[in-house]
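seq:
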Amino acid sequence: MLAYNSGFDFTIEDQNIMEAERINAISALLSDLTVREAELRRYL
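struct:
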C-alpha cells in the first residue's frame, strides 16, 4: 500500500539518521560552549 505522500514516509532508518545528526549538532554546540566558557574565565 502506497502512502499518501511518500516524501513524508519516516522510517526507522530515517529517524536514526536524524537522531545521529541531532546528537552531532548538540555535541558540537557543547564543545563550542566549553571553549567559550574557558575563554570567559581567562578574561575574567
